[in-house]
Amino acid sequence: xxxxxxxxxxxxxxxxxxxxxxxxxxxxxxxxxxxxxxxxxxxxxxxxxxxxxxxxxxxxxxxxxxxxxxxxxxxxxxxxxxxxxxxxxxxxxxxxxxxxxxxxxxxxxxxxxxxxxxxxxxxxxxxxxxxxxxxxxxxxxxxxxxxxxxxxxxxxxxxxxxxxxxxxxxxxxxxxxxxxxxxxxxxxxxxxxxxxxxxxxxxxxxxxxxxxxxxxxxxxxxxxxxxxxxxxxxxxxxxxxxxxxxxxxxxx
Amino acid sequence: xxxxxxxxxxxxxxxxxxxxxxxxxxxxxxxxxxxxxxxxxxxxxxxxxxxxxxxxxxxxxxxxxxxxxxxxxxxxxxxxxxxxxxxxxxxxxxxxxxxxxxxxxxxxxxxxxxxxxxxxxxxxxxxxxxxxxxxxxxxxxxxxxxxxxxxxxxxxxxxxxxxxxxxxxxxxxxxxxxxxxxxxxxxxxxxxxxxxxxxxxxxxxxxxxxxxxxxxxxxxxxxxxxxxxxxxxxxxxxxxxxxxxxxxxxxxxxxxxxxxxxxxxxxxxxx
Amino acid sequence: xxxxxxxxxxxxxxxxxxxxxxxxxxxxxxxxxxxxxxxxxxxxxxxxxxxxxxxxxxxxxxxxxxxxxxxxxxxxxxxxxxxxxxxxxxxxxxxxxxxxxxxxxxxxxxxxxxxxxxxxxxxxxxxxxxxxxxxxxxxxxxxxxxxxxxxxxxxxxxxxxxxxxxxxxxxxxxxxxxxxxxxxxxxxxxxxxxxxxxxxxxxxxxxxxxxxxxxxxxxxxxxxxxxxxxxxxxxxxxxxxxxxxxxxxxxxxxxxxxxxxxxxxxxxxxxxxxxxxxxxxxxxxxxxxxxxxxxxxxxxxxxxxxxxxxxxxxxxxxxxxxxxxxxxxxxxxxxxxxxxxxxx
Lengths: 252, 271, 344
Description:
The complex is a heterotrimer of chains A (about 250), B (about 270) and C (about 350). Chain A is an alpha/beta fold and about 250 residues long. Chain A is built from ten helices and ten strands. In chain A, a hairpin with a 2-residue loop joins strand 4 and strand 5 (about 70). With about 270 residues, chain B is mainly alpha-helical. Chain B has one domain. Chain B is built from 13 helices and two strands. In chain B, strand 1 and strand 2 (about 110) form a beta hairpin. In chain B, helix 4 (about 60-70) packs parallel to helix 8 (about 115-140), helix 5 packs across helix 8 and helix 10 (about 155-185) packs across helix 11 (about 195-220). Chain B is globular, with a radius of gyration of 23 Å. Classes of the chains: A alpha/beta (about 250), B mainly alpha (about 270), C mainly alpha (about 350).
């Protein structure tokens, strides 16, 4: 089965206090694509992610996953196909042990305990942390927590992975390993991040949000080459693309 | 002053929790068996009269045996139990003041009942604390929650306990960061009421926001208002033997006064 | 102010367990029927929050000492009484298990003393005093008064539970005169701190606190029903449990001046005593009274003299020797088991 397309059409969100968080946002992400959504703080990234999973209801416009529009009725099936990984793993790992946490989603899907066990093992092995399954989350390292949080979502067998700031709070080694892991996934992937070097590694395409609107949408390298755009959106070119201070050359 | 207290609390919690992750025959027993035995133990110990001292001593065999069989670090646990002694002393101290009737004479010196009951209270405190700590150390908190629930505790409280357990360290660390930051600027004095309220208020707001995010994360993974639990351990023959054995011993110690018999026999031997 | 296992008799402990179980059961059903799934994580992390907040000490003005938050009333203001009681119960359970604070048998007492009173007596009083849209001053005063009452009731409960158990020798009157004034001070501090936190939250995020009273009427009714049930249970438990002349009735008798074996309660009391001797699964042991009576007579303040000390000396020396031996045996058992466990 092909993973479905993710589509936003004229998506607008106004919070109760009148703040306009998203303004007429439209994009279409094809199956299997890996896309970054970048922007300064308050640009509307988090609000957008919450719409993709149906946590917020659009003020105007709509979100479609495949052919299914996001409504109250379709919410359970949408949440099954869109896996959302939160920025702070401590918010996501709420069960007392790693195993129980990863099993939380499959159990909610009403699967038999045998199938749950299979899924949990598969997911934890996929992200390389099967060995910590009996531990309570507070005894994991930051990198392990992140992996377990991803496993918790993988165990629900989603088609689309949506991740908020996957590399935040990780040390360089754990960050590098996580990027390697994420590059191997075949899912449709949508990331938000301030880590533009990660974006460069993982996402051929980037959508730039500024003040709730789409400012640019295109190949990542083109966008990072546009200094004026980056400056206007309060972003900075990734280190890998900055000229070497000694010799003036870029990495490639 | 307060940051070390927070830190010490967190450390105690973690160390004890870590012990439960070990493996031994005792660790593998169904949690209900261990819970029931611990409760029976405390009931037996507290059922003695005010002046019971010697009859309480044999009961130390329970925490000692559990700690040994489960390879718990006896010295550390003893220290943690002993640290509760000052508090026990505090609640026992009125006894010598109010109960001055001489109950016992040793070589012409009268010992008031109050002093005897003081020792009894200290022993009770030690035994009760040892029972609670060894229970957690060989069972682990989530398993105890499961056992309580299967013994009739409402689901809501079981879920509440699991959340509390999960976020204890997270919020404890947050509190630690806040108090440390405060103390770096304000020295080691305890907080004034106003500062405390501000600090705790901020912690409360953060906690509230976190609860919102956790709820989102739960919904994202299909939460529909109920927690489904996985496979459960069985109350089998081992458990029955464990419960019957210990409860039998506790009753025997309670009714047969073995200390007195043993002592009397020994004294006769030397006379 | 935790009630401790060391001061508790099984009868009183079990009675309070039963009372706490009723309260927890009722609150759980209520929470389930409200069906607000958002509440699940909120209650959970607020339990952890209270734990963290209790670990931070603050200076009590003018005393040089420091204290910490109780938090029952704060939780009730944030969550309503039913959720607050469950959160409080969870905090007390963790304290009993991980920190041996209070103890397993004393859990029931502590849930009632520190959870039930603030949630179902203090909080309804706060609502009534504060009204529907309180100003800062009125709300603050309401909080302080409610905290004060909760702590007084909690302290009184500790006294009753202790005296009814008969392990501590503190007479009822003295104990009350000691506990209540101290908890008057603690209550004021608790109230001031709670009010300060509430006003901080109200200023920082006005929407967070429930503005409309979640119907004070039924809550008060439930509170009174619980209170009556708990007192009745407690009374029965205390009466039955008090094997000791220093029990509740003795203290009361002393306070009222009705001393001597001819106090009017003897008939009932003797009957109860007989019943108890027959019903008691476990006879009373320990250091024996000189007359050898296993259960001391209810009129026992005809103080046992210190005659017959020779006999008692024999008894006690045997006890001490035997005790030392059993302790050694226990350690030996530990060593053997440890060695076996190592080998396994």
